[in-house]
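ARCHIVE CARD
Drawer: 12
Card no.: 0347
Subject: one protein chain, sequence and derived structure
Cross-reference: see card 0346
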Amino acid sequence: MISALTGRHVDREVGMTGEITLRGRVLPIGGLKEKAMSAHRAGIKTIIIPKDNERDIDDIPESVRKELSIVPVEHLDEVLKVALKEGKA
């Protein structure tokens, strides 16, 4: 929705996992290892994860971690900075 309202495209090499509350808080998830490996196989270069899941990064195989930029976030504002491309479409 924010992409449509701002006219900024979502970067197609960025993926996100987690839930966002109505107040913009990013909630933790389960299965980070599997989700990261799937994103890597799909060609995603950057994954946005909940900050509370930082401890799970070590579970991701090193070969996958080396090729991914993993960005832990706590709030929607941080997500938008990473996911939306600069400039108008």
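Annotation on reverse: Helices lie at 2-6, 32-41, 62-67, 76-83. The domain at 2-83 is CATH 3.30.230.10 (Ribosomal Protein S5; domain 2).
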